[in-house]
Amino acid sequence: MAEKKLMVPREAFFMAIKNGAERQYNPSRPVWSTDPAVKKHPELFIEVAEQVHDQGTVVQTATAAPGEKRATKPGKKKDAPGE
């Protein structure tokens, strides 16, 4: 059996399902690779791991991890009031 992968549509679309109803597929809602729409139209989907990798976004944390010291830039000295 092939490994199940998490997939997202490249763009939003509707597709008729077995009972005649329509189902909406949206890039914000992942589906499994075993979903009938993925099996029927794999070209409309992309694997989640590929999507995350393609964005190339680097996330920087704002706080230091426990035990980690962050380098700080020396701040400007503020003039005392009345000077």
Walkthrough of the structure:
The chain has helices spanning 36-40, 48-55; strands at 6-9, 13-16, 22-25, 31-32, 45-47. By secondary structure, the protein is of the alpha+beta class. It has two helices and five strands, in the order ββββαβα. The mean pLDDT is 80. The protein is elongated, with a radius of gyration of 24 Å. The strands form two sheets. A three-stranded antiparallel beta sheet has the order 4-1-5. Strands 2-3 form a two-stranded antiparallel ribbon.
Please count the helical segments: 2
Global shape: elongated
Helix vs. strand class: alpha+beta
Strand order of the largest sheet: 4-1-5
Distance between the termini: 78 Å
Taken as a percent bin, the fraction of beta residues is 15-25%
Helix content: 10-25%
Give the tally of β-strands: 5
The succession of helices and strands, N to C, reads EEEEHEH
Note the main sheet.
3 strands, antiparallel
* Mean pLDDT over the full residue set: 80
Whole-number radius of gyration? 24 Å
Q: Runs with pLDDT <50, length 5+?
A: none
